[in-house]
């Protein structure tokens, strides 16, 4: 499989910058959550402008999620949803991940197509790799939905631990995304004629 180096797979960091910004800024107060939503929306537009123009699912989902929650809380005074915002965001991202797989366009495929030769785009292995990668992210989001729910209903040490564990799952997803395409490339280089 014509797979890029790890540096070119760093796209995942850009795709998840709004989520990371939200996670860092969102505290227990209404003001901190509104600030976090505003910052995540702004980062989605600024850092993801090129992705928005290309119609990338993940970036558009982030814009709708963060922007929609911001409008609901500031424009419509629906601050009651703020404590649930983390649960809603992770649940929606899980739905987007699995929905993109069901639609036949796993969201990682949109990035991967720009990083491999055109001849590989129709390769069934290429599609399976992206289904798996998107599925892994969907799994990360499902687990983080449950952890965020746990943090919400069990404030204190258990909730704080659950929140910290969500960051661990995000980091694990990023590490997997950086490692797995190279692993597949090496695997198929050993089995294909000429090592290509």
What would you note in describing this structure?
With 196 residues, the chain is an all-alpha fold. The chain has one domain. It is 75% helix and 0% strand. The protein is globular.
Question: Strands, helices and their partners?
Answer:
Blueprint (H helix, E strand, L loop, with lengths): L10 H15 L4 H18 L1 H6 L2 H19 L9 H18 L4 H6 L11 H30 L3 H35 L5
Nutshell version of this structure?
With 196 residues, the protein is mostly helical.
Head-to-tail CA distance between termini? 7 Å
Strand content: under 5%
Taking Cα atoms only, what radius of gyration do you get, to the nearest Å? 18 Å
Major beta sheet summary: none
Residue ranges: pLDDT <50 for 5 or more in a row? 1-8
**What percentage of residues falls in helices of 4 or more residues?**
over 70%
The SSE string, one letter per element, is HHHHHHHH
Helix-and-strand structural type: mainly alpha
Shape descriptor reads globular
Q: Return the domain count.
A: 1
Number of helices: 8
Write down how many β-strands occur, each being a DSSP E stretch of 2 or more residues.
0
Mean pLDDT across residues: 84
Supply the key terms:
196 residues; mainly alpha; 8 helices; 0% strand; disordered N terminus
């Amino acid at each position: 499989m014509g797979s890029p180096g790890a540096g070119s797979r760093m796209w995942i960091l850009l795709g998840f910058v709004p989520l990371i910004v939200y996670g860092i800024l969102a505290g227990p107060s209404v003001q901190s959550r509104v600030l976090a939503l505003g910052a995540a929306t702004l980062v989605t537009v600024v850092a993801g402008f090129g992705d928005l123009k290309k119609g990338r699912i993940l970036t558009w989902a982030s814009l709708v999620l963060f922007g929609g929650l911001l409008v609901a809380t500031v424009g419509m005074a629906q601050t009651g949803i703020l404590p649930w915002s983390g649960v809603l965001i992770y649940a929606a991202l899980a739905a987007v991940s699995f929905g993109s797989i069901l639609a036949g366009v796993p969201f990682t495929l949109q990035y991967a197509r720009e990083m491999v030769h055109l001849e590989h785009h129709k390769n069934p292995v290429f599609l399976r790799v992206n289904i798996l990668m998107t599925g892994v992210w969907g799994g990360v989001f499902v687990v983080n939905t449950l952890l965020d729910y746990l943090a919400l209903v069990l404030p204190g040490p258990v909730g704080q631990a659950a929140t910290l564990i969500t960051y661990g799952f995000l980091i694990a997803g990023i590490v997997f995304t950086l490692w797995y395409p190279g692993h597949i490339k090496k695997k198929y280089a050993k089995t294909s004629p000429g090592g290509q």
